[in-house]
Amino acid sequence: MAGPLPDVSSAVAGLAALQASMDNPNNRFNAGADSAAARMKARAPVVLHHRPKFQLSRGDAVFTMGSCFARNVEHALIGAGVRVLPEAWEFPPEFMHPDAAARARLATGVHRHVIARSVLNRYTPASMLNEVQRTLEPDSCRAPQKGLVHIDEDRWFDPHTKDTALQGLRESLMVRYLVEEAAKTMRRASAIFLTLGHTETWFDSETGLVLNVAPPPLLIRNAPERFRFVNAAYTDALEALERIFDLVARHIRADMKFIVTVSPVPLNTTFTSRDIVTANTYSKSTLRAVAETFCNRHAAADYFPSYEMVTATHPDLAWDTDRMHVPHALVESIIARFTASYFPDPAAKPDTAAVPA
Question: How many domains does the chain have?
Fold first, then answer.
């Protein structure tokens, strides 16, 4: 007896599928000098052939949101001459966590940019939605003290940022103001570049807000029922992206372009009982499937395969010594492909040759 049929609402005729395969010069994994296998064996950044749905102009401003890989992308886009929002934004080091502030003082170039703007990192689709909703519909997010968590008399924790210090209420509210001002620049964007990080999500049952980072262990122990953890399912993550799309269309512009990718940077810690490798695979595969569905639904949303460009590249070139972060040379190579694909103006296109890693 035949089992249930898959969803066929997006099915195409068999002849059309055959023609698409025949017209695709990259339809085979292991055939020819330019096959996927040959590109992956080479000790060079893997170039994936990508046909964008739309193109951008030199006058377009791109708002970036996502994980730490988004900060690398942001820095490379600025270097490629793309207008990136927020522009010339600096976070005061005195408000940073002491460890992050120390790293920022010693860092230069891309590393300093990534650390200095790490406060803007957003890791899950739910935390991205939280930031967009707080920005575009502030009346719907009226949590006490803007969702800050009181630790003791002199210290407050901001679970909606990254790498910020535990400090007084006045300083913490100043941090929230600076971050919110940065988020408001999305109103001037022509395109939004979303880098999806992972699925492991925390929320505060007292304020009703999704958190961007896990609460410190001390807070969890002191309030074991207040903070809750959920590993988002495919439907949860997809719904968050759809709500972001709807909010932007209603409050900014209906023709906003979305470019979506998945961060190749793995989970640093899992709050599940799974091996970290298994937990990371779940996060990345779920978000990759969500990105595909979301971009297939909307003509104004396109998936850019930076995730695959990293993970398909030889490991010695794809990763720093920590096996987590991506070397800047490879990021530059990926962004060279991005600008060549999306910006038709020759002045906006850097050299598209692979940058040696």
Answer: 1
